[in-house]
UniProtKB/TrEMBL annotation:
Keyword Isomerase among record annotations: yes
GO biological process, one term: glutathione metabolic process
Keyword Acyltransferase: no
UniProt similarity note: Belongs to the GST superfamily. NadH family.
Protein name: 2-hydroxychromene-2-carboxylate isomerase
Enzyme Commission no: 5.99.1.4
Substrates-to-products reaction catalysed: 2-hydroxychromene-2-carboxylate = (3E)-4-(2-hydroxyphenyl)-2-oxobut-3-enoate
Length: 218
């Protein structure tokens, strides 16, 4: 029986999602899995949950760059800030959602991440997005046009709603056989899970779920 794909839910806004993406194809291949890149809107997740992004907290914004720069050094991949941050990722997310074939979509994800975080011209303007589409060997005019259609816009919205329904709350979120893994630092835990070596038991999980709350800031 074919193994279910790993759903990699991401937004180009996140350097953590970029770093996780650099590891995902090889990780999935080690376990005989395909990767489905799923573009979601981080702002939509945050708004739904009443949360804020790391870049919206000034001290954390600086720390995130230092943290991700060190992880990039560890991974042996480039990390250069985009022209602005936060930036509007909607066009990049929509052109990605317009690509039906997962392998081609993965090439586009890599090209857009390289443009956003690998020293390129970013992933916000139509010109930068078009250049990344061409670098991925895809049809830039066709995908830019598709990104403006209600169908593709709705696809990104539905992706975002689906990751929320699955228990996601940020990016990157990897959905594996009904389990949620969040953040680049969860990739090792994902591998344990895929090998059948997850140390977390259902008893442990239920104990935490049923733990009483005796203090609240609100």
């Amino acid at each position: 029986m074919a193994r279910t794909p790993l759903r990699f839910c991401f937004d180009y806004l996140s350097p953590y999602a970029y770093l996780a993406w650099t590891r995902m194809p090889a990780l999935a291949a080690r376990h005989g899995r395909a990767v489905e890149p799923v573009p979601v809107l981080l702002a939509g997740l945050l708004n739904a949950l009443g949360s804020v992004g790391p870049a919206e907290i000034p001290p954390k914004r600086v720390y995130v760059f230092k943290h991700t720069f060190r992880i990039a050094h560890e991974f042996g991949v480039p990390l250069t800030p985009p022209p602005s941050h936060p930036f509007n990722p909607l066009l990049a997310l929509r052109v990605t959602a317009a690509v039906e074939d997962w392998e081609a979509r993965g090439r586009l994800v890599s090209a857009l991440y390289a443009s956003a975080w690998g020293g390129g011209k970013g992933a916000e303007t139509p010109e930068a997005v078009a250049a990344a589409i061409q670098a991925a060997g895809l049809d830039a005019p066709a995908l830019l046009a598709a990104a403006q259609t209600p169908e593709v816009k709705d696809r990104v919205r539905r992706n975002t709603e689906e990751v929320l329904a699955a228990g996601g709350f940020g990016v990157p979120t990897i959905l594996a056989d009904g389990e949620v893994f969040f953040g680049v630092d969860s990739l090792g835990h994902l591998e344990w899970f895929l090998r059948g070596e997850d140390p977390l038991s259902q008893v442990d999980l239920e104990r935490w779920r049923n733990l009483p709350v005796t203090a609240s800031r609100r």
